[in-house]
Specification:
With 175 residues, the protein is mainly α. The protein has a domain of 98 residues: Serine Threonine Protein Phosphatase 5, Tetratricopeptide repeat (Alpha Horseshoe), CATH 1.25.40. Helix 6 runs parallel beside helix 8. It is elongated and about 55 Å long.
């Protein structure tokens, strides 16, 4: 729950509907979409971490990673993990991507490395994919490829064991 009380299901449903309609907005109507999200965020109790989270997502999804960074950080600082561990993890993934997009891949990698040891969920592969991009931006391509192959291996119809081994071998010291 967020500070000031729980968010009700009607609000969550309206946010979900707004995002479901995102692709229906023409590219030149990005501000219109952000206005819909801003209006929903304005309904939240003061201090809610969900407002800056949704607003950050809207800025990020409309091509403004630079504007999203501050809002993602604000959402985390307001306790987004306590409101929703899942949205907190999404925020770290998206913030890391935005940091990479704005030339701060090192900060993005620092943010995601602890997520490798976080409780497993459906976002595990997204963590690895985004971290791989950050590492590649930092010139650490072998580590990036290792992460990407390691994330891909369990999804292959065959060769899971060998691909996982190849992924590990990319970062193990040669002996």
């Amino acid at each position: 729950m967020c500070e000031g009380g729980p968010v009700n299901q009607d609000w969550e449903d309206r946010v979900t509907a707004a995002w479901a309609a995102f692709d229906d907005y023409p590219e030149d109507a990005a501000a219109d979409f952000r206005a819909v999200i801003d209006a929903l965020a304005a309904e939240l109790p003061e201090g809610s971490p969900l407002g800056p989270f949704e607003r950050a997502c809207a800025w990020d999804s409309t091509g403004h990673s630079d504007r999203a960074v501050t809002l993602y950080r604000e959402a985390l600082a307001r306790g987004l993990d306590e409101a929703s561990r899942y949205k907190g993890r999404r925020t770290r993934i998206q913030l890391a991507s935005s940091l990479r997009n704005t030339g701060r891949a090192d900060q993005g990698a620092e943010l995601l490395i602890p997520e490798l040891d976080a409780p497993s969920d459906e976002l595990d592969d997204a963590v690895r994919a985004c971290l791989a991009l950050c590492l590649s931006s930092l010139g650490r391509d072998r580590e990036a490829l290792s992460l990407a192959l390691g994330a891909l291996a369990p999804h292959l119809p065959r060769y899971q064991r060998s691909m996982a081994a190849y992924a590990r071998a990319l970062t193990e010291p040669e002996g």
